[in-house]
Amino acid sequence: MDWLIKFIINKVPRPQLIFWSNFFRPLLDFYYRGNKFCDPINNKSYRKFLPYGYKNQRQNALSPGTLSLERHRLLWLYLKNKTEFFNAKIKVLHIAPEQAFYKIFKSIKNENYITFDLSSPLADIKGDICKMPFEDNFFDFIICNHVLEHIDDDKKAMQELYRVLNKTGYLVGYVPFLYPIHNQPVDYWRFSNKSLYQILSNGGFNNIIIEPLGGRFIVMYDIILPKKLFFIRFILSLLSIGLNMLYEMFHSKEYNREMYPSGYFFYAKK
After folding, report:
1. Minimum mean pLDDT among 67-71, 156-160, 194-198: which range?
2. Taking the complete model, does pTM exceed 0.85, yes or no?
3. What is the C-alpha to C-alpha distance for residues 240 and 189, in angstroms, rounded to an integer?
4. How far apart are CA 204 and CA 23, in angstroms?
5. Which of 24, 123, 130, 179 gives the lowest tally of CB atoms within 10 Å of its CB?
6. Contact at 8 Å (CB) between 120 and 110?
7. CA-closest candidate to residue 54, choices 166, 182, 178, 165
8. d(CA 33, CA 30)
9. How far apart are CA 139 and CA 167, in angstroms?
């Protein structure tokens, strides 16, 4: 299964990938049902999650039911437990929309949900994040996952995000740090905690919260371990999770993830 998923996500163009996944997702959802892993997005449980990664694959990363990854499920929990995203009447801009959220967010009746991307078939409006066709102060909420590292002029992008967000609006997103190069040749940047805070602050944002994700052994698994020995990678993935948990018994979780972050989840207010 590892080699098949790796082949598909690397070789099948994204529009076709999204199109065909709509047919296969119900089958995957049924086939992998179980009680070992829970997906908070659809509240269903599975006997396993699928591997995912363009180069180094992470085991139990992709939910069969929603095709969500770890960062998607984390964002879902944050939106559900820490914000009024699902209850308030708001205008939402979702940049580079993820398939895991698309239909659910579109179905929320009290939201004006607009998707935006350079080329994604899920985008309502296609264009450049550095020159967006929206009025000033238009959106209440912006979601921007795995985007900023692919923007050559990241400062201009941040200015645009600030411009189209209203005076009480929120920006949430994710950027990778200790993570393999992906989507070549347009993978330009890696932001540390301080550089991410600085670019958000310089862009005018306030109340900035940045949460590191990952840990020493999670990062080691993502970057160092062999790419083609799939059975060995599966065993080592379980070992890396166990070692990470053991490490956090002697060092705080905060220390482990601050020192060895795979990426950062960020939240900021205008």
Report:
1. 67-71
2. no
3. 26
4. 43
5. 24
6. no
7. 182
8. 6
9. 9
Q: Is-contact 236 221, C-beta < 8 A?
A: yes
- Class (C level, CATH) for 77-214+260-269: alpha beta
DSSP secondary structure code for residue 172 in this structure: E
**Radius of gyration, CA atoms only, the chain:** 19
Residue 133 in tokens: 């066709």
What is the maximal distance between C-alpha atoms in the chain? 52
Q: List the chain domain ranges.
A: 77-214+260-269
- Locus of tokens 């309502």: 124
Q: Collect all residues with Cβ–Cβ distance below 8 Å to 215 and sequence separation of at least 6.
A: 244, 247, 248, 253, 256, 257, 260, 262
- What is the share, in percent, of the chain residues with pLDDT greater than 90? 47
Q: How far apart are the first and last CA of the chain?
A: 44
DSSP tally for the chain: helices H, then strands E: 9, 11
Cβ atoms 57, 6 nearer than 8 A: yes
Q: Do 262 and 177 touch, CB atoms closer than 8 A?
A: yes
Chain centroid, CA 254 distance in Å? 20
* Identity of the residue numbered 26: P
Structure tokens at 169: 């609006």
H helix intervals, 12-69: 14-31
CB 50 within 8 A of CB 84: no
Cα 255 → chain centroid: 22
Q: Closest Cα partner for 171 from 136, 134, 133, 209?
A: 209
Average pLDDT, the chain: 85
CB atoms within 10 A of CB 222: 22
Over residues 189-210, the mean pLDDT reads 94
DSSP per residue over 176-204, as a string?
Answer: ESS----STT-------HHHHHHHHHHTT
